[in-house]
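User: structure tokens for this one?
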Amino acid sequence: MENRINQDTGLYQWPLFELLFGHEIARARRYPSPLCLLHLSMWGNGKVSPERAESAVMHVAHVLNSSLRQVDVPAHYNDDFLILLPVTDEEGGLTVARRLIERISGEHTARTGSRYFISVCVGMTSHVGGALISGPDLLQQAAESKDEAIRLGPNTLMNYRDLALIRA
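Assistant:
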């Protein structure tokens, strides 16, 4: 399974995430169990040097690797991160998302000693499990929630259920 885990960050790459995501969707469908998906994006309003961007990615990866359970699936997704939380209900997902925002956000130091800030926006969706759960729907809902969190500003969490209520 070459290139399935990023050697620098220890996070899953898309092909392996997609495979594990499919397995967890099937499990949640067969044995109705809750499932959460977080879509995390670093938030910024300007150009960032490549060194600071790399440091920020490494910091996010470190927090994900040290804060999540072994069964959770953190992955790179384009320039963002997806975090699959199997057997996690909505309240549990909100707790994890808030904890990640708290641990990632703030001032940090790059390897060269320069200081920089990281802010993140997180979109979250959850499902109770059962026959109606859909992987593509969860991915779309998490992305829409993340986009709304970005619109609201740094260090924001948007739950899809709340977004759906706002739109109604």
